[in-house]
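Page 47, continued from p. 46.
Same chain as before, 75 aa.
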Amino acid sequence: MSQIDELCKKGKDFFENGKYLEAMGCYEQALLLNPKDPDLWNSKGLVLRTIGRHDEAIECFNKSLQIDPRDKNSS
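Result:
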């Protein structure tokens, strides 16, 4: 399992357990390793939306769409 995969798994686990800041930290670390992954931007956006930081979430979703305009997962 790659480092990015491990960070995503941790991020998902944190998110599902309501540990949103920890989840965001995992996604931010993964984005440092691969800033061109639209799924990572979506995941970070979901965390931000969940904690009420809507403007930042929209920026993440837009970034995802800039990378892959066909990305169906962008919220």
